[in-house]
Amino acid sequence: MDSQTTTASPSKKRWQSGLAVAVLLLSTVIVYGRVCRHEFAGWDDPATIHHNPLFDPPTREKIAHTWVEPFKGLYTPVTQSYLGTLAFLAETKDIDREGIHLDARVFHTGSLVLHVLSVLLVFAILNLLSGHVGAALGGGLLFALHPLQVESVAWASGAKDMLCGLLSLCAVYQYLLFARREGDRRRWGHYAIGAVAMLLAMLSKPSAMVVPAVVVALDLFVIGRPWRRVAVAAGGWCLVVAPLAIVARLVQNADIVPDVAVWRRPFVAADALTFYLWKLIWPVTLCLDYARRPAVALRIWGGVWPVVSVLIVAGLGYWAWRGRGRRPWVVAAMAVFVAGVAPMLGLTPFMYQYTSTVADHYVYLSMLGPAMVGTWLLTRYGRPAVAWGVAIVAVLLGVRSNLQLAYWHDDHAAWAHAAAVSPDSFVAPSNLGTSLAREAAILNDRADEAREAGRAAEADALLVRRRALIARAADLQDRAIAINPDFVNAYRQGFNFRLRLGQERRAAELLEKLLAVNDAKPASVRTDFTSYRETAGILWAKLGEYQKAATQFEKYVSAVPANADARQALAEVRAKLAEARTGDDEVLRR
Fold first, then answer.
1. d(Cα 302, Cα 300) in Å, to the nearest integer?
2. How far is CA 256 from the centre of its chain?
3. Domain locations in the chain?
4. 143, 238, 539, 579: which has the fewest C-beta neighbours closer than 10 Å?
């Protein structure tokens, strides 16, 4: 390594390491500690945690079953076991009005603990590679405090990313101990422990399949072992990864994602990499959903930007490779960063691409790369000015991360921010509307209480506010539909909100579109909306649209032929339709 080596005595290095660990712990807790008081988010938390049937109530048998079958298109039994354990600790006797019986603080505290452990592992890795405690501290602070890490820490469902990252970092650390102890038979114990950690990481989230690529980059460019030895060692881990990678690909359904031609996918990947690079340098306007779907990314600057992004990525890669002899840590860091996000770059389609190719929580493990660059800068240019510069950057990043946490306090704050900074997001306005509807339900309860207490004027005022919130929620669903006419959930929520407002025709139109959009989807991702057909038939009949009512009732009867009420409703609508046609014929004869 082209760095300054330390000559401190072992006792002094232990003292320095202990102080560094204390600084990392204190900094991480100060910046992220407020997350322990946050609520659940509406972004996957209902399905993943508080309304997950596995945890309602949690049982050992249910959790054990996740080792047999995938959950939500992912085989992640370690994550489900972790969340299930927290669910046992988080159970409360009180159930709120949304049916939540789990204490969010338990899950957020668990996420903070996972992040702290990952930070300490990153410090251990950097210290092992550099032999420079101060430089490793600087890199560790960059990993710990960068705002790109906020989403993983603040999002309870993001525990899968941190659990995967923690176990992956454990695997990397054990591999490095193995690689640095040539000739020592005991090193194979580290190799085996690392392989187990990597296996558990993959069972937390399949993206841990990149760990062999990460250790190859570190072994080749930082440790500097011959490539044949590296290939043999990493090849053994590839044999562990391959079967689970195949399973992960088979169980994850990406049929909902619009197809992108193979030749265009490198442009999508390059756009994602340059997006992450910019957020690393300038971490502002971070949010839950960037809406950077392939179709959006490919039309930026009229289609010119994707070409520019490829040139940027290629240029940086060329620069790093040409200087690998002088800057081996830099090329290794770049390889680590790219490897960490490789499964989510869009070279192969994945489920979340329906919403966006990029997301902050995808870079959790990848942040080891920037941490390496920070460590390298401090070892190569170890002047006080550089150290002070890194300290100032760490403070600024910590302040920015702490401010970013405010947007994760509750669902409304998160989605209002996302809708404001990500205009192409269809998820943000839809989920913000859902959040407003929940607030409207609370106002409705307060109005009932006020009326029962004899405060009629107060009750009426609360109901006016409730209606305004529902109207705003309905308009937000229309905004989501305008952005993405294929978004089923916006039609469903819009239908519900318009119905509450008494706007039955608009509600019926949205329901009709919901059913048409759902029918057009591939069978593997289609939702069973059979009961909605009956609702559509009833609404159209009430509005006097008997032909539309008959069409929906016919489809409903076809789906549930044994339903006598449905057959009766169809017969009545057909009779009404026949009467209307007879009346029209008489008018024509006159």
1. 5
2. 17
3. 12-412, 528-590
4. 579
